[in-house]
Amino acid sequence: MKTRTKTSDELKQTVKEKYAEISEQSRDKNATSCCGSSCGCDTVDYSVFADDYSKMEGYNADADLGLGCGLPTEYAHISEGDTVVDLGSGAGNDCFVARQETGESGRVIGLDMTEKMIAKAQKNAAKIGFENVEFVLGDIEDMPLEDDLADVVVSNCVLNLVPDKDLAFAETHRIIKPGGHFSISDVVIRGELPSALKEDAEMYAGCVSGAIDIDTYLDIIAEAGFINIKIQKSKPIQLPDEILASYMDEKEIESFRNSETGIYSITVYAEKPA
Predict the structure, then answer these.
(1) Are residues 130 and 122 in contact, defined by beta-carbon separation less than 8 angstroms?
(2) Which of 141, 131, 147, 266 is nearest to 212 (CA)?
(3) Which of 82, 110, 111, 128 could tie 151 with a disulfide, CB 3.0–4.6 Å?
(4) Does residue 47 belong to any structural domain of this protein?
(5) In this structure, is residue 194 part of a structural domain?
(6) Backbone dihedral region for residue 59 (phi beyond 0: left; psi -120 to 50: alpha; all else: beta)
(7) 3 lies in a domain?
(8) pLDDT digits over 3-22, tens only?
């Protein structure tokens, strides 16, 4: 019997519910599960996704839930006075690092579709005392933000979770000022993941099966109108056997390991024409 593919709305609701749950977990809990999802692999060290923020200025441990797959703010070329928008801002980690770069004269806006994440980020901002960091509830595919707002957009392991990536990057293009740019860390694949991995909603919320082919990903960025597209950083991600065993037998796992199919964390940069 054919498995019914979840609709975009159902997938978004799955992600929203999962990240509401994650907002109440510790960083250690998130870092040892599937990118934060409780999909039965709590014994797996899933820090292979996350990069270490702790040495970056502006880092706040309370805002780091261990959900990222890169350090986009490190590569974002943020200047003092910039307006920065973080897509999928979670508990506020990248926003607080960006605030260190923009200074008091800048403005940092975090956008997230999960009410509990917004509340957690606002609580963290209040503790730190930042008055020019704000958090907005909204959807990346339909941002409640004005045109030509941001000098810089950052995002960390979020765009792969958005069903309509064409619309997400079109919206990103809309909110960036002419001459502005983005630096986005995300998960992409080369080749075709087994259908069981792609169709599993828990893996979708866990950063893997929402990912698309890297060439398709870069094409979408170009079609949205961005130029000077470049990969700033790339690292392979090896799915542990404990995860693959939920979807494949030993022969299938061996075949998968020996194939050219791969999962990568990339940080990609692009500019909006001036």
Answers:
(1) no
(2) 266
(3) 82
(4) yes
(5) yes
(6) beta
(7) no
(8) 444 566 766 666 666 655 65
